[in-house]
Amino acid sequence: MVAYKLLLPPEAKIHPVFHCPVLKPFHHNPDTPIPVATLPPHSIDNQPIITPLVILDTRWTQTAVPRKEV
Hints:
The protein is mainly β. It has strands at 3-5, 17-19, 43-44, 47-48, 59-61, 67-69. β3 (43-44) and β4 (47-48) form a beta hairpin. The relative contact order is 0.12.
């Protein structure tokens, strides 16, 4: 099976490997404009802009050094 691995920015947060059977060719229709969405920033200086209202759950991870995830 053939697959393509894309070089994506880290903020894309999607798996970069796509298998050829799931890819489809793009056919541009000049009568239909391509919508471009401008997303608001989600952080400034690595700090979230929106503060969560409540923490629903926490868990301990099983790594070399146990740590609590929120």
